[in-house]
Design a protein that fits this description.
This protein has 8 helices and 16 strands. With 304 residues, the chain is α/β, with parallel strands linked by helices. The protein has a 6-stranded mixed beta sheet with strand order 8-9-10-5-11-12, sandwiched between helices. Helix 2 packs parallel to helix 4.
């Protein structure tokens, strides 16, 4: 049983030994007086896979678009690799991106799509074919390079988009719900594929999704957002087992909620409900205060 309390706060920090790859400081985005993103701050360390998770309208996509450079924050600062990028246009940022609508060029072959960012960045033309072939092999499309986009399956098109986003070896990879349009089986297969590729390359990645299963499967860290604010940032296990507040407990997994009064005890805090003392795990209110407990179905055992 985990007791859910108030939000943990606006600021969250990823722990680890690697240097900070992405730093977001007090970032806000206001539309017509309404905050789509409200004073968000976090650090993401190099090589980590972070998922921005939340319902529609939570601000996760707006935050991703500000990192990409497609929107300018109303307030706050964003840095990648220690350098502020707030004034840089998207094409000047060392960021690869895979969109929900893949934006592949239908008149080009798979290998021409993958080569496109290299040509735009004026890579040595003699090195492009070898690099393109290497990244097509990485996404298991060796031998498919000359096929047109319409000749590829949905999953294969996803792989082309991934290869195109990675081929110029960006400092950061952004994923804007690229799996949303796939059927469930293919989506689950591609979730694992994304994670394996990210792990093999060690590229720092920020993923946006409303799919809690996807977030729990692929992520090193999860930021749960609601109404433009960070509700919790933690690893998947902590997010699921020790939600920071009622919103996180209700959004991640399936929970029932009961209200009671916290009582301090030598063996840990307990929640008094209907005259019974129930042991609590996770954050709790102070002794004598009212708290809400989240109970997950898999934690219930029938005695007797």
């Amino acid at each position: 049983m985990g007791a859910a309390t108030e939000p943990a706060g606006k600021r969250a920090s990823v722990q680890g030994e690697a240097p900070v790859a992405v730093s977001v400081r007090n970032v806000s985005m206001v539309y017509s007086g309404q905050a789509a993103v409200d004073d968000v701050s976090f650090d993401l360390r190099q090589g980590r896979f972070l998922t921005l998770l939340g319902p529609s309208g939570s601000g996760k996509t707006t935050l991703l678009r500000m990192i990409a450079g497609f929107q300018t924050p109303t307030a706050g600062n964003i840095a990648v690799g220690g350098s502020a990028i707030g004034t840089l246009p998207p094409f000047r940022r060392s960021i690869g991106m895979v969109f929900q609508k893949l934006a592949l060029f239908p008149h080009m072959s798979a290998e021409e799509n993958v080569a496109f960012p290299l040509r735009m960045r004026r890579f040595d033309a003699r090195t492009i074919p070898e690099r393109v072939a290497r990244y097509l092999d990485l996404v298991k499309l060796g031998g498919f390079g000359r096929r047109r986009i319409h000749e590829l399956s949905g999953g294969q098109q996803q792989r082309v988009a991934i290869a195109r986003a990675l081929v110029f070896e960006p400092d950061l990879l952004l994923l804007d719900e690229p799996l949303a349009a796939l059927d469930r089986k293919l989506r689950e297969e591609m979730q694992i594929e994304f994670r394996n590729i990210q792990h093999a390359l060690g590229v720092t990645t920020i993923n946006v999704t409303h799919d809690q299963r996807e977030a729990l499967v692929v992520s090193d860290e999860i930021i749960v957002m609601d109404k433009g604010r960070v509700q919790q940032m933690a690893d998947p296990q902590t997010t699921y087992r020790t939600p920071a507040n009622r919103f996180v407990a209700g959004f991640i997994g399936v929970s029932d909620f009961i209200s009671g009064t916290v009582r301090a005890a030598d063996d840990g805090p307990r929640l008094v409900v209907g005259g019974r003392d129930l042991p609590c795990a996770g954050p709790t209110a102070r002794d004598g205060e009212t708290a809400m407990a989240a109970i997950r179905a898999e934690q219930i055992r029938i005695a007797g």
